[in-house]
TrEMBL record:
Binding residues for NAD(+): G12, A13, A14, G15, R16, M17, G102, T103, T104, S126, G127, N128, M129
Protein localization: Cytoplasm
Transmembrane segments: none
Chief subcellular location: cytoplasm
Protein name in UniProt: 4-hydroxy-tetrahydrodipicolinate reductase
Residues annotated as domain Dihydrodipicolinate reductase C-terminal: 132-269
Length: 272
């Protein structure tokens, strides 16, 4: 640890991603774990964050007090719930620090609040923080542009572990947005999120989603471009949560000297 290390707070510290973030901060040069926050009433309050994440004692007890945790911090890494991320975005804006948000399942109203927070905080938000998926998004936009909607149908298939609470995944929606961008259409009005019963034939130009849940799958995504007599499949398989945690830490370091704003992983990775 050096004096110039970026001081990061992990909120949702006891969660699957929270623990992965603590491990990655511990092994990454240039960053240090400043505080670890869990929700009020969590059995992990007071426990050492390093022990919780399996990297040994770090001398950082888990707290339920975000105000105290944000004091003197330079960035917040947040993979929690939509309501929690909205609340923390207000605190991060007040503290004028970096807020990296990986939380998925956020509503349009939540996104408006994040945009407002980005007037004061340096906010980086993405449904997927991995280099591979963000590159995949760029490739999907290219493919969707090159293969005309009249002859090529786009379907997005995803599978995640059985504990995941939102669907389609943030990554599936990110890939859907990329496909819609390539096609020059609006995803919200063109997406088919569920099919059940007598649905009729597939409307031309729509983007379909299919969701699978089970076991411990970290995150598998395929974008299928289906033409007459041929299929193009672009896919990504996440084997380990550390890919998202490494991306989040890289995003915090990238945003450290940026102006306040609402950024995405495409900005961080130079893919925008
Ligand atoms: P999880 O349920 O294991 O962890 C969430 C944690 O947040 C829990 O420990 C919970 O107690 C804590 N929490 C909830 N409210 C809180 C509050 N008010 N204050 C402090 N802590 C609070 O879930 P997870 O698998 O770690 O995923 C979390 C989120 O991150 C989900 O939305 C998931 O889809 C998303 N995710 C995003 C990416 C990405 O790259 N963007 C990757 C993986 C997961």
């Amino acid at each position: 640890m050096t004096a110039n290390d970026m001081k990061l707070v992990v909120v949702g510290a006891a969660g699957r991603m929270g623990q992965a973030l603590i491990r990655v901060i511990h092994e990454t040069d240039g960053v240090t774990l400043h505080a670890a926050v869990q929700r009020e009433g969590s059995p992990f309050i007071g426990k050492d964050a390093g022990e919780l994440a399996g990297v040994g004692t770090l001398g950082v007890p888990v707290t339920a007090d975000p105000l105290q945790a944000f004091l003197d911090a330079e960035g917040v890494l947040d993979f929690t719930t939509p309501a929690t991320s909205v609340a923390f975005s207000i605190l991060a804006a007040q503290a004028r620090i970096v807020h990296v948000i990986g939380t998925t399942g956020c509503s349009i109203e939540d996104e408006e609040k994040f945009k407002a927070a980005g007037r004061h905080a340096r906010l980086v938000k993405s449904g997927n923080m991995s280099l591979g998926v963000n590159l995949l998004g760029v490739l999907v936009a290219q493919a969707a542009k090159a293969l005309p909607a009249a002859g090529w149908d786009i379907e997005i298939l995803e599978m995640h572990h059985k504990h995941k609470v939102d669907a389609p995944s943030g990554t599936a929606l990110l890939l859907g947005e990329a496909a819609a961008r390539g096609r020059g259409i609006d995803l919200a009005s063109q997406s088919v999120r569920v099919r059940d019963g007598h649905t009729g034939a597939r409307p031309t130009g729509t983007i379909g989603f299919a969701t699978l849940r089970g076991g411990s799958v970290v995150g598998d995504h395929s974008v299928v471009l289906a033409g007459e007599g041929e299929l193009v499949t672009l896919s990504h398989s996440a084997r380990d949560r550390s890919i998202f945690a490494r991306g989040a830490v890289a995003a915090a370091l990238w945003a450290r000297d940026k102006k306040p704003g609402h950024y995405s992983m495409l900005d961080v990775l130079g893919l925008s």
